[in-house]
Amino acid sequence: MAAANPYPSYRASGLPWVPQLPEGWQVLRNGRLFSHRVETGFPDLPILEVSLRTGVRVRDMENLKRKQVMSQKEKYKRAAKGDIAYNMMRMWQGAVGSAPVDGLVSPAYVVVKPYDEANSHYYSYLFRTAAYMQEVNKYSRGIVADRNRLYWESFKQMPSLVPPRAEQDQIVAYLRAQDAHIARFIKAKRELIKLLTEQKLRIIDQAVTRGLDPNVRFKPSGIDWLGEVPEHWEVSKVKLLADYINGFPFKPAEWGAKGRPIIRIQNLTKEHAPFNYYEGAIPERNHVKNGDILLSWSASLGVFVWNRGDAWLNQHIFKVVPDPTRITRGYFVWLARWFLNHMEAEAHGSTMQHITKPKFGSFPVPLPSLDEQAEIEAHIQRETQDIDLVITRTEDEIKLIREYRDRLIADVVTGQVDVRDWQPGHDDVVSDEELAALGDDEANLSEDEPGDGGE
After folding, report:
1. What is the SS3 assignment for 11?
2. Which domain range does residue 276 map to?
């Protein structure tokens, strides 16, 4: 990492979000840097997707949901290699980037072609800085804030920084090299988390299928993949142990900023995901309180214990109510984490995971007595506690390196750090495969679901 040296001299920029710029830099409106490209009718081109962290890339078309997009490709817009494409409704979150190849983006996207003085990779970095995304909000229009759109006519009026083209190229080379180092770090930490998670799953698997008594006698479970279970246990089905209630099919157009919060999958999987709210009345069965067990069955499979206050439950999430005469709440959570791990292999699709309600209810599970459930629950909690602490600490390290990356990018692309004298070292080799580790599956936006807030 290069030392954080400022430029020798600065001048006032006239922009509140970056008060001073290096001498020799300009401020121009985007209409001076980009032209608008609106081209359709290229069905043979690959479909592109956007990551909030890494920009635009070619989509993996393997799962069923993405295959359904094929019939809509005539409506999709062409983005030539090097064009900037952004999601009108999600640019304020960083849904913008430079097209790596000629491809197609959703009709909900704006495509702009850079003029010669603009390196689209530099602007891809600039446009995803926090300061610039706040400016996007000011230029966006809509009925409510979270439905605002940044149209081309507004985008072209926005002011942007313009370093000399050679400096733009140098900034891109420097940031890509730093991204390579950061991506390697993140990849190593993710591999550690994967190993720890596998270790935790082995502990859970052993406890909920074999019990804690090393001298127990076993019997055939009658299920090939499960094998034997303790002879005094029964084998039941999920639907006989708990009621599971699907969330309410809210319409995103009905969401607002007041009322009771709506729990969407991102509110379970992402710590700081914002809520949408609903003021109307829906069935009480969709009311969620602290301590309720929630199971997401689409997009991101997982079981969670809710602890963020009264809320409404959105579709694609089950509220699970265990039968206290058959299974304890705590034991059900561990059991659910075990059987979800097995069910993932049978879920429809590779990225957009999905479990049907009949499949969920018919899944066979080994079941000890209530007393033994309590013992197993305490054992798993005790044996996995240290693993959880290490996973949490490792996840925090990833968050910190991401925060460092965001600060570094902001400082470099706004000229607060001078990298003109930087030269790549032997370990600054960059590959797109390595940079992919910067991405985050939760940060991806599907072009056939253009950020409308729905699951």
Report:
1. strand
2. 239-354
